[in-house]
Protein 1
Amino acid sequence: MGPATLGGRSIFTGPKTNLILGLAITVFALALVFVWIPLDTDTGLVEKVRRQVTIGDSLAPTVAGLFLLIGGGLLMLFERNAPDQRELAISSLGFIGVLVALIALSLLVMRFTGPALVAVVNMAFDSSLEYRLLRDSVPWKYAGYFIGGTVLLTGMISLVEGRVGRRTVLIAVAAVIVLIAIYDLPFDDLLLPPNGDV
Amino acid sequence: MDTLDYIVLGIAAVFQGPELFSLFGLPVSVTLVMIVFGFLSGIVVGATPGLAGPVAMAIALPILISTFGYTPDALLPVMGFLIGVMKGATVGGAVPAILFNTPGTPDAFMTTLDGYPMTRKGQARKALRVAHFSSVSGDTFSDVVLIVCAPFLALLVEGYLDLPEKTALLILSLSFIAAVIGGSPAKGLISVGLGLLAVFIGTGEDFYPRLSFGTEELSRGFPIATAILGILIVSAVFKELEELWREKRASGVIAPVAETGDQRLRFADIRALFPYIARSSVIGTAIGALPGIGSTLAATLGYTVGRSRYEKTKTDGDTEFGKGAPEGVAATEAANSSVSGANLIPVLSLGIPGNAAAVFLILAAESIGGFNPGPSVFRFTSDTVNPELVIAFGLFTSMFIANALNWTVGGLFMRSMGVMIRVPKQILLPIVLLLTLTAIYVQETRMVAIWFTLGFGVVGYFMRSVGISPLPFVIAFILGGKLEETARQAFAATGGDPFFLFNHPIALVFMVLSAAVIVFTTRKSREPG
């Protein structure tokens, strides 16, 4: 059951998906166990502390590595010719790349709109406001979330629909206002992004 | 304190908890209101294409915790809401499957096979009634089994399993989950391995947070909500959006079908459906009690078993399975609904979640504190009150209240939900994404948590794209910490015996079973057909 292909040109040709995936996972697992864990963990598999042997910090991630190694190995050895292998289309990678870039951009807008706005006001009115001190007061606390959220929703809807329309922007604005109403208005102690750590 | 006292206390905790308002002089507790609210939200979410119960739970959890706080008093209202969502979403999920041939969840896929043909024959309302009746019957049966079995299983676990055995049991659960979810044991193991790796980053006992590349961001590890919501929900949003973008719909406009014939569910109908509902309820409950096997398998098995019985007993002129037989809808719905109650057996008795809904119950319990799902919950202390046991009986009470709601208003509310199909997914899904990210932020108040969630979303998207189920990842993430802690304690308790997993007979049996389940399923998946 389920589609074996996602359409478009594929990176893996047909039934090689499991083989390539298995190989990649095996290489990753070996690198994890023999390079990452030894270099980035201070205690070994077992440790001797005050003449008592205890389990070190390396053991648990090594077990995770073993799961990956067995999984990758089984995939290469026994499931390499499985009938219903999915293909990962290049167009899918393109779509997800654009989508994630769009979300990342929106989050950056969300993060920096408030401070940028304060900087502009400071320049225009020669004041010395600080966003950090204003982040729990209206309208500053909504600036980043409102603009960033609207960009995020408008961008994502438009990407899927293949066009940007006024209706989309209006829907995005309305949705962000509703979200502010849900998370901010009833609660004094909740902080909308990015106001918790600016 | 005997068992009866605990049951009474549990019921009282639900009905006599903090009062929200009074109705005709009777106080209405906040827990009761939350169950009702959760149940109705669950039906709406279940009936909305592209959404499912976990989405509602993810979005609601931070709001609920902010509202009720981090005290043990918050446990029942919050978990009552989640239980309501779980039950409502199960019933609601049948609506788009029957009316529009668009299963909202994989479980509902089998419902479309007979449900949608019934709609096309003008029997939509009858199909919805059959689905509702079967679903609620299966669910109620499953809850009864939960309440009878969970305490006994927990006592058994406490009585016979020591630290090495518990460690081996956790390994067995993980390998079982890897083997049965998603149909490929190799991919299941990879999913578990990635989940374990993620939870071990930045944690550990040493001064230096392991695998953190020396960075401040990774040194505290990944917050549990970022991994669960990223892998389960954000990745699903990405995948659905991609499919929408890909199709950009050669749009199937649904032509309205006039209703014909009797739409009511008569006693004769119920009598004819009963054997199918009963059989599927037993199948679903048995499957649900094993950690990790989801309702999709239960629905498939229930449907298959129902079909083979139907083939033997049908008379000429009866509608065939797959062409609009009410028995097909009943067999599927009873099976997938009876999973949810039984799925809490491993959660409450062992602390091992079996499905996404159980994951959120554990997440709620961990966030609020004061209730640690596992064998200690069912310690029937006679001299002092075990508050966790009272909560457990409170949860059972909540489940029965949700069932009662389901029997009474559930059907009516569910049948009015056909309108949700009109909500366009390409608008809904981005809003769900922003809601999820906001929910994460208000809990964690760090932008980096949002980036983590996004990262997990991308990982989950690739996993889904190559056919790796994300659920073993999430379950491994939840169990990883417990696995390491139990292993450390077992190692210390056995005086540093490196073979503690193989020196104790029960632990050895669990370890052999862990390997056997992988070997068996690998061999099975190699068999053609």
Protein 2
Amino acid sequence: MTKVSMVVNGKTVSGEVEGRTLLVQFLRDGLGLTGTHVGCDTSQCGACTVHVDGQAVKSCTVFALDVAGAQVRTIEGMANPDGSLSTLQQAFQDHHGLQCGFCTPGMVMASAALLAENPTPTEAEVRHHLEGNLCRCTGYHNIVKAVLAASGQDVSAPLAAE
Amino acid sequence: MPKDGIGASTKRREDLRFLTGKGRYTDDINIRGQAYAHFIRSDVAHGRIVSIDTAAAEAMPGVLRIFTAADFAGVGGLPCGWQVTDRHGKPMLEPKHPVLADGKVRHVGDPIAAVVAETYEQARDAAEAVVIEIEELPAVVDMKAALQPGSPLVHDEIGSNLCYDWGFVEENRAAVDEAFARAAHVTTLDLVNNRLVANPMEPRVAVGDFEAHNDQHTLYTTSQNPHVIRLLMGAFVLGIPEHKLRVVAPDVGGGFGSKIYHYAEEAFVTFAAKQLKRPVKWTSSRSEAFMSDAHGRDHVTRIELALDADNNFTALRCLTHANMGAYLSTFAPCIPTWLHGTLLAGNYRTPLIYTNVKAVFTNTVPVDAYRGAGRPEATFQLERVVDKAARELGVDPVELRRQNFIRPDQFPYQTPVAVVYDTGNYHATMDKLLEISDYAGFAARAAESQARGKLRGFGVAHYIEACGIAPSNLVGQLGARAGLYESATVRVNATGSITVMTGSHSHGQGHETTFAQVVAEMIGCDASQVEIVHGDTANTPMGMGTYGSRSLAVGGSALVKATNKIINKAKKIAAHLLEAAPEDIELKDGKFTVAGTDKSKSWVDITLAAYVPHNYPLAEMEPGLEETAFYDPSNFTYPSGAYGCEVEVDPETGKVTILSFTAADDFGNIVNPMIVEGQVQGGLAQGIGQALLESAAYDESGQLLTGSFMDYAMPRADDVPFFQVDHSSCTPCTHNPLGVKGCGEAGAIGSPPAVVNAVIDALHRAGMTHVTHIDMPLTPSRVWAAMNA
């Protein structure tokens, strides 16, 4: 076991991990941050997406030791300081961008990373960016709509295909 | 009307916890002192277990115990909840389904042993050291091969791989044959309904806990129906009476049918927790899910449609081979029979129908209900053969459908396959589809595609489904070993707020929001005053759970019944306080008024009086304001809809792109339009997934070739367009109090034939009339091969 420290959601944390302990295991089991989910074992589904130093990372693909000293942000750190939902989180609720909620933390983290990089993405850009995050409930319709809305774009008219 | 009553697109209250990482899914539950289970699963499809040597593994760090079939000698097998009787009056063959493989393994993924250790890693490490010798036997994967003489037997003791040979309607068989002999035209189509994996994003998890001092078991599990699991596991597997067994299904991350069933791992952790006097947790990996969650579909069908000289449908005849997999999953036998054969009339007046279904055991993962369950298979074959008939006859597929639709004035309509449709208007949904999908403008769009070298096609499909399962006395006659009612307890608290305990279960459907809207509408209060409790057998009435688009139609009806009981009692209390007759009391906007007067009492006046009964008719009525109702439906509900898909096919590569998808549904009345639309959109993506991407594939030796998300193509955000979803056509259900029909499965039922019809349309418009069918999924290689055949 090795000691690892990092900053998670603004707080310095540390814990004992094995070399093989994944970041997602450290977050869930070590820190009790169970908002980050595990939906597969091949880094395909994106339910475990978190931010490491501002980049969206699938936390099942990195070892906890690999992010020693890094700034990590999880879904638990996404709300506004007063506890209210952030613009992006609120857009997911307003546009019914979630159903069972299991992929949602990963979707929010991946979408937040997109918007940080590209503040007004097109529909195609949103769909392409979320290609690494699987959702089985929504058919993606309302997720894409929520991300476009969070970017300040008008989604009040019926969204046309193509 | 309260602002969050029936008909409002109320935002979901459950979202707040899911959006902030505060959901409580089963894998988030960790009980002090818990141990971890890891299953060792068969890596061959069929074999005899020669030996299991656990000695070295038992000595490894942290190992608490290694379980094999021998440990389950005194334990029952996993039960099947539906017995189908075959066309000769014989009950289906029902092989044993042990918790851990006993003597033989029968599919890749069949659990052989389980290691329980202090940590998850220790359990996995020790599993590597368990030495299992298996004498591999020839496996059978193909259903028709499994029925040939000399085929390997999946279950030696039952002597056949034919689970049942079902005919429906058996008495119509000769008449159907005669109609075919007389037909002016017969269209025949052979097709495959591809095997799918439900793949809810949350893998299955089970945590067993045991309190020795009071002999109390608790199972936390990813289930759509905790009461059903308690009954099945308690009564049939482990012999635990209900009062000593609590089953909790907390937040559940999607189900789509795959979390209905009672699985071996649930029984295992419950059993092991008592043996070890420790909580035991198992979390499925996705790879395990692929080889242990029940799969869906997997039918091979020949369908024939007979028409007269005027293009009226005169008879339908089908032969389906339905894969059961290696064991009977909980409700497997009813899917290709009663949830499939009874829907073969579709939306049409076809007077004579006969279907023969042969259910077959193979060395593959068990197959059971997946979103739609039998109804997508019925719809797909019907809507494909109708489309093929239209092309053969040179008539418009839309017009051929319209001509044969049940007319609006014919409801209630008795089909020749037992069911009675109460309401519907298929002409209206078809008209709506053509309007909102701009069918009239298709030719111009096709020309534009052609100018770019692409082939454009438009496909339609019209579906019917039977939801709201089901009248218990009817399904009992059909072989169900369970009732299919639903329950609700409405507890009005002393200060007026309301707690509802439902036997239904939400795993994405939004019950916590919509059920509160129903109560708020009836009482005239704000929905925020109503809390919905579900998922725990300890605090909800016995209920059958959520599947088959039944929650609102059956569970919602129970809720209405219980709330009506509350209102009736509250009116009596109000009558006492207002010194009036109960029949003169009106409830409006949460206030009780004596009709025609200004005398009134508030809701809270009444609820306080019920619990502080100082001025209360105690001689006539009990104090308190809490009522329970069970609702058993008198019929199924029959949602229907017209779906249209517009595709572009790349003639160079065979790649299909969905340009638009339009759904015009009739769900009857609607409580929350936003949630209904979300259900349809999700179903559409699953149906498009089936049509273009998904397939659970086995090789000849029974190895699962698509065992992870690397190989099994799930629909992703860039595989689907924005959908156009309409539910303005409305013929309310006539036999439930809300007039609702159910919307959960429609998208997955109606979309696969619309997609395939669109691709065939594109090819035909380009002159490739030799392509009459392509089996799903319509991958570029399949489409290219068909084009170039």
Protein 3
Amino acid sequence: MNDLDALESQSIYILREAFNRLDKIAMLWSIGKDSNVMLWLARKAFFGHVPFPVLHVDTKHKIPEMIEFRDRVAKEWNLPLIVGENTEALAAGMGPHNGRVECCTALKTEGLKALLASHGFTGVIAGIRRDEEGTRAKERVFSPRNQSAEWDFKDQPPEFWDQFKTDFAPGTHLRIHPLLAWSELDVWRYIERENIPMVDLYFAKNGRRYRSLGCAPCTGSVASTASTVAEIIEELETTKISERSGRAQDKESEDAFERLRAGGYM
Amino acid sequence: MSNTATALKMSPEVSVPHNASPMKIVVVGHVDHGKSTLVGRILNETDALPEGKVEYLKEVCDKRGMPFEWAFVMDALQAERDQGITIDTAQIRFRTEARPYVIIDAPGHKEFLKNMVSGAASAEAAVLVIDAHEGVQEQSRRHGYLLHLLGLRQIAVAVNKMDLVDFSETRFEEVKAEIVAYLNSIGVEPTYVIPVAARSGANIAANAAETPWYKGPSVLGALDRFEPAKPATDLALRFPVQDVYKFDERRIIAGRIESGRLKVGDTLVFSPSGKMAKIATIETWGNSLASVSAGAGQSVGITLDEQIFVERGNVASLEHHVPHQSHDLKARVFWLGRGPLKVGSRYKLKLATAEHVVEVTKIERVIDVEDLANHQGTEVARNAVAEVVFRGKSPIAHDSFVDNPRLGRFVLVEGYDIVGGGVIAETPTDEARNRSTHVTEVPHKVDAETRSIANGHRGGVVWLTGLSGAGKSTIAMEAERQLFLKGWQVTVLDGDNVRTGLCGDLGFSDADRAENIRRVGEVAHLFAEAGMVVVTSFISPFRTDREKVRAINPDAFHEVHVATSLDECERRDPKGLYKKARAGEISYFTGVSSAYEAPALPELALVTEGKSVDESVADLLRYIENSFSLSAREQANGWGL
């Protein structure tokens, strides 16, 4: 087994644990590279089936190519897709002009909470990785959220020997993170090996590409000439610029991302 | 001043292979001994920090009017900066010329032991950081002990803050002697002991000019010399069933191979049922190549050539190499619960994919990790380590930790929380109950299900308890006759009858009565396992004795209280025993000179007063038929209809 085989096996183990131990689970699909890889792993884990709903929280500010990709792939892969949005906030005109953290909280966090509550999900699978950001580095694979979907990062349950927290009080729910141990480079090497389809925005055009995808107003592209998966891998092997450097909401204050996550952001 | 030169020199011919898994290193030690600083330094020396990270943190420190610390690199969370301590495990990557690493920075505070364990349990090697000035402290010992308990054998000790003791060789040797003596006493030989000043970077990546007397490797040099963990393919096959899928026409048994290998055509034995079947296929999806074999670490799905009943928690292995199976487990436990672990408490034990309800039957010793002294106790406090014996309601398939760590470790769950972990020492040799060592239960090839289908009813123990003269034997014998006439497999074990043979060596003292009941209980359960309904007729006055019999197999045990009052029994006095007891001719007579503890919650209470024997027998038979008969559906399923 090489390192990608080991990561793949571990992620499949986690997905199967979540499916077996929790009553109502769903997988978050942000259309980004990580959640595309996660979907691929689910199809491997369950032999071609995705036996739970795939959720997309639409902020209506996403880059249009992302929504096109979502609808095409959902059809091709026959995914049980559920799209949700915070209708109220959108009607009230919520946008980054109200403050980036406020906008993320309303459209993503609150949108997601409403979607989870309306379907009664007790577990939601998310494609976050430890190497993305300092806060995510502290996450557990099975990470409990209280009734308000808040994350108590100061008192997390012990997690060892692949024995995950699968018992939890009514009203609380779990976030499950099958990609926690993957690095950005691992993700791209796996995309190359498995030939997993990706949104074109990741590939450089006119000297710029997106390294991380989010909403149009808050996601910037980076200077790059990497126009193929192989070139992206080559680029990542040498870069020292952080992955979320194009994500404006992280930089509102020094602990902006931490506050977002403690409040229930992915 | 320093760079990765040492690492480079040590393995000049090794280029980093693309597909090497990162080695997982845990950094542990007492609070404030400088773990995070060490890690921050390692990241800096290996050029692993994102551009601008150090500058950014320096800026933050300036804004707050505090001096920059390398530890801030790791302490990304607001709460940590404010308190100045690591509160949770963080994982950060770096690489040397030799290989990639994931470093797990584990907190030193005692109350965060659960986080330290969470980090250390998956590590392949450890760095134990000790302050040269303060020397070995409580958490240095506790962490050292836990590393050993978790099975880590590659340990480097970094004697940190050497700059505060003027890089004194004497002081280094003192601290070194102290920690080496402790580690040796728990059977650990630290691989390297390194004098370090994390703040200035001395002996982190290259040997420092300040310690010319030190001839060993730098911290990175030591890490590069550790061996990566090998997948357990050389051990016996252990394939715990995670789930069974029927998404389409295939019935796929899914799970991860924890150790060993399997291939198409192998005959698998499933514990605890002992059922066997051959592997028909190894299933794959997408562009993966069809495979005929798979090994440790792989998550796979297989189909079998026969439709045997298999469920999550079963462990598949190869014939003649099956795991141990027993109700009892003796383990070394580290306890993380808020309240103490207690004798008599029940927990959910999770071992691989199996879950068992277990009761703590004994705390053999509580280990003081400070001085390694053993204490007796009936409780294990938070963050303590102890040797504990558990008894499962059902047999537990397991290995000892030394034979196969993957099946030799478990966690304990109380309520919603994981409250402890344990490594299995051996199959217990509880002196009172079992002096036979190296006993492994061999699974039957005829299982309970098959027997019950052949008999038309389940096996089990109907345990009549009550005063002398209550009517137990009369009711038992008549019930046996009537069930036998209906074609049931039934027998009675009666007090006076077993005392002429099986228990002929026992008297009526409390200890002998307890032993009498224990033997009868074991025999009754053997009959029950053979598929029979066993009605027992014993006064069995003590609740604890009856509960022990129940614990042998709680699912098969039915306690029936023949609840005739003492007055009525004494009035009946069929054998004239009450008269003799009252006259003082019999000592230890239940109800007269010895206590009777009535069951608090029997499965059935038979009131005999005001009823004929036939009516009481009818009450009992109704209960037995309801509890032991197979439903029409079970019978139909059983015969494959």
